[in-house]
Amino acid sequence: MRLDKFLKVSRLIKRRSVAKEIADQGRITINGKVAKSSSDVKNGDELSIKFGNRLMVLEIERIIETTKKEDAEHMYKILREDALQDQGE
After folding, report:
1. Is the CB of residue 3 less than 8 Å from the CB of residue 36?
2. CDD domains from the xrefs (predicted)?
3. Is residue 41 within 8 Å of residue 3, measured between CB atoms?
4. What is the longest distance spanned by two Cα atoms in the chain?
5. Which of 29, 37, 52, 60 is the most exposed place for a label (fewest CB within 10 A)?
6. pLDDT along the chain (89 residues), means of 10
């Protein structure tokens, strides 16, 4: 499944266009490599996503083409969330 679609279906990011924009800015890595919105993701992949001043690292547990809100959280497991330091300090 494409990265941007996974982020939307899993409800990590609400809109696919926003997921594409974030990925194309280089703010997402898959298994340590910078990912584009068209990158393929699969079970077991580790994603790192920079949301503003926060870094979320998660593991993909399940790929589902369409999902209900309550099932979306079963698509991934959050490994850690870190606060990022401001570059201006």
Report:
1. yes
2. S4
3. yes
4. 43
5. 52
6. 94 93 94 94 96 93 86 90 72
Strand partners, 81: 56
Give the residue carrying structure tokens 């979320």.
56
Single-letter residue type at 33: K
Give the tens place of pLDDT for each residue, 43-58.
999 999 998 899 999 9
Exposure string of 7-42, with b = 16+ CB inside 10 Å and e = fewer, is: bbbbebbeebeebbebbeeebbbbeeeebebebebe
Report the alpha-carbon distance of residue 66 to residue 42 in Å, rounded. Answer: 15
pLDDT, residue 67, reads 82
The CATH number of 3-83 is 3.10.290.10
Q: What is the pTM of this model?
A: 0.85
